[in-house]
Specification:
Distance between the termini: 38 Å
Mean pLDDT: 92
Number of strands: 14
Oligomer: single chain
CATH class of the largest domain: Alpha Beta
Order of helices and strands: HHEEEHEEEEHEEEHHEHEEEHHHHH
CATH topology of the largest domain: Rossmann fold
Structural class: alpha/beta
Strand order of the largest sheet: 5-6-4-1-7-8-11
Number of helices: 12
Length: 417
């Protein structure tokens, strides 16, 4: 009887601990300073970050400087180091007025640090909030930053952050013949990995440049010796799993202002490759979309110039379409852990001039359609033209999704969904 009571007590005690753990706040790796400060002390640090790299409400760079870390150079991605530039807007090098640190843009004349850029750096640090969608360009920036680090033999530390769309995997897998900066690797639109897990995958699968792949293999062999300093390391988040529904404390870019946009982005960004507005220049980018030629019985809106979208598509033109904006709980219910291709199917069906639905490149080649770069191949465009149902389109993704999930599983750092 005593043994039975003890077992019951231990089960209850363990259950309470697990329940408490589930209620603990999710902390991005940047908060876990005890895990990475020893690797930065006394070093000259180069940091790739933007406005999302925070500890609480304080920018990581400000926190590190107060802690005595010597940051010699910063690198900025799309939207810039402070996150204020429009999508696609090229950003020049400058000195950050808040810190005095020189900032080298990796979304302007070049996308990868040069050996010259890294000559005054001992350790590289990466910390940017991703949203877990293939065509969100920060994972492309991550890849090229990793390649520069490995090719120049600079130790690299990735501070992980939770993925707000990390609770499912869906969408077409990219054919590498269609590789571009909005899709560099054979992964689905929604890949269900944190940016740290993604970094481990592209290194582990040898998806970097040949020189970077060779150097990474050397690092792995060297890491087996106890006296070897780190060369590549991911610092994990605390209290995060792939079942988590993590709401971002800071908007990751000007046109993803809230969780509604972040959740719908994977499904509606395809409209960037069409003549329809994807909602830039409205109150709810990526949750509002449409065109003047669609039926006037649909939702009416007019894109206008505003911060983050100075020249939006269909600027000042009355358009008709859909408004799917909602609070995060309602959107999650509608999302139901899948990419919603129905929006594209309905929009194409209702659009009167189907020959002009997709933005056509000058040479008319499938490889050059921006829509195809977003989709990862010409298959989705052809399915829409053929009138294929959303159900059949989704079924066509499954064989490649199943293969990707096998790869993904090898690099997960957190409990899966």
């Amino acid at each position: 009887m005593k043994k039975l009571l003890l077992i019951c007590f231990l089960i209850g005690f363990t259950g309470n601990i697990l329940l408490q753990a589930q209620n603990l706040p999710i902390l991005p790796a940047a908060h876990r300073t005890e895990a990475y400060l020893p690797l930065l002390k006394g070093k000259k640090v180069g940091i790739f970050a933007n406005h999302t790299a925070t500890i609480g409400k304080t920018h990581l760079v400000d926190s590190l400087q107060k802690l005595g870390i010597n940051i010699t150079v910063a690198f900025g991605p799309e939207h810039g180091f402070r996150g204020t530039a429009d999508a696609g807007e090229k950003v020049d090098n400058y000195t950050d007025p808040a810190t005095g640190i020189p900032v080298i843009s990796l979304y302007g004349k070049k996308r990868k640090p040069s050996a010259e850029d890294l000559k005054n750096v001992d350790v590289l640090l990466f910390d940017i909030q991703d949203v877990g969608v293939r065509f969100y360009t920060f994972i492309s920036s991550l890849q090229e930053f990793m390649e520069a680090a490995f090719e120049n033999n600079k130790p690299l530390l990735v501070l992980d952050r939770p993925n707000p769309n990390g609770f499912y995997v869906d969408g077409p897998v990219l054919d590498t013949a269609y590789r571009s900066f909005v899709g560099m690797q054979p992964v689905p639109v929604v890949y269900g990995m944190t940016i740290g897990e993604y970094a481990l995958m592209i290194a582990g699968e040898k998806w970097l440049t040949p020189k970077a792949n060779t150097q990474y293999e050397y690092y792995k062999r060297a890491a087996k010796t106890k006296d070897t300093a780190f060369h590549f390391q991911v610092i994990k988040c605390a209290n995060y799993t792939h079942k988590s529904k993590y709401e971002l404390p800071v908007k990751p870019s000007p046109n993803l202002p809230d969780m509604s946009a972040i959740y719908w982005y994977a499904s509606t960004c395809f409209f960037e490759g069409t003549v329809l507005s994807e909602g830039r220049g409205t109150d709810h980018p990526f949750a509002i979309f449409g065109h003047p030629s669609l039926p006037a019985s649909l939702y009416a809106f007019t894109p206008s110039s505003r911060d983050g979208a100075k020249e939006p598509k269909l600027k000042n033109q009355l358009s008709y379409g859909w408004n799917i904006h909602g609070n995060s709980k309602d959107v999650l219910k509608k999302l139901n852990n899948r990419l919603h291709i129905e929006f594209l199917v309905d929009a194409y069906r209702l659009f009167p001039q189907k020959d002009s639905f997709f933005i056509r490149p000058k040479n008319g080649q499938p490889l050059n359609y921006f829509f195809n770069k977003l989709a990862g191949s010409d298959a989705l465009r052809q399915q829409l033209i053929a009138g294929t149902s959303a159900t059949a389109i989704r079924a066509s993704w499954q064989p490649q999704l199943n293969e990707f999930k096998k790869i993904r599983k090898k690099y997960l750092l957190y409990q899966d969904f």
